[in-house]
Design a protein that fits this description.
By secondary structure, the protein is mainly α. Helices cover about 70% and strands about 0% of the residues. The protein is elongated.
Length: about 270
């Protein structure tokens, strides 16, 4: 009487693909089969399964990579579209509430993406405008929010050039806090603003926005304290020169060129 014995040949990975494709292999032997024949049959089946699953594994890996690539591209397209939509709104913002809403939109993109520093950067940058223009805003609370967003951006920034951009925003926040009461706050926030700028220049000495900010700071400082147009002129000239050769990547910071050119014109 013949007896069929079923052996399930499960190995790491092979077992997984067997389950996926319902491809569990069977070795059929009878009670009259010799040990040598059993061993030979077992080895042949084992070889067939490994060969089959090697081919199947390649197909699975290829399909997985194709699917993953498509998913990443779709996510990237969604991210790019959301960023470009919000970036296009910068020029149409008018009120503090507008900029706060725009900042919130960028922050939500950052929270959704989790690996991109630019959304948090632009969320912080959006808040710097009311920090300059709205005399009724709480400058300290606004700066706290800017710095919190900068901290999120810094955690994701990949290189020194990116970090220098974030420090430029921190410089503006500290300057705005100092301007609440320059006499009493110069030694704290004024020094802090200078430190941010110095560190940013060390990270990327070719960032034109840093020299624009430095030039504007000197421009607004009274001559008796080492500032004024004459002192600001060479700094602003350097900013303008660097802007002409600056080639930022898509969606990367590129603000400040016209303002630097206008400020330089006032120094003539």
């Amino acid at each position: 009487m013949n007896q069929t014995v079923e052996y399930k040949l499960n190995f790491p990975c092979v077992a997984l693909f067997n389950a996926l494709f319902n491809n569990e292999q069977k070795v059929q032997v009878s009670d009259t089969t010799s040990d040598a024949q059993r061993s030979k049959a077992y080895k042949q089946k084992n070889k067939n399964i490994i060969t089959f699953n090697s081919h199947t594994m390649k197909q699975i890996i290829f399909s997985f990579l194709l699917f993953t690539s498509a998913a990443v591209m779709a996510q990237s397209d969604k991210y790019t579209a959301a960023m470009q939509k919000n970036l296009a709104q910068f020029d149409s913002m008018k009120t503090t509430a507008d900029y706060q809403s725009l900042s919130g939109a960028f922050e939500r993109i950052g929270d959704a993406e989790k690996t991109q520093w630019l959304p948090y950067y632009f969320a912080a940058l959006a808040l710097t405008t009311p920090g300059w223009t709205d005399q009724g805003i709480d400058k300290d609370a606004n700066a706290d929010k800017i710095n919190a967003l900068c901290t999120k951006a810094e955690a994701l920034a990949a290189n020194d050039a990116d970090k220098s951009e974030i420090l430029a925003v921190r410089n503006m926040a500290a300057t705005q806090q100092m301007m609440v009461d320059p006499q009493s706050r110069w030694m704290s926030y004024g020094q802090q603003a200078g430190d941010y700028l110095k560190k940013a220049m060390e990270l990327n000495p070719n960032n034109p926005r840093l020299y624009y900010l430095q030039g504007m700071s000197v421009f607004g400082t009274p001559e008796q304290f080492g500032g004024g147009k004459d002192k600001a002129k060479p700094i602003l000239q350097k900013a303008v020169d660097l802007y002409k050769t600056d080639q930022p990547k898509t969606m990367y910071p590129h603000w400040g060129q016209k303002q630097a050119e206008d400020a330089l014109a006032q120094c003539q």
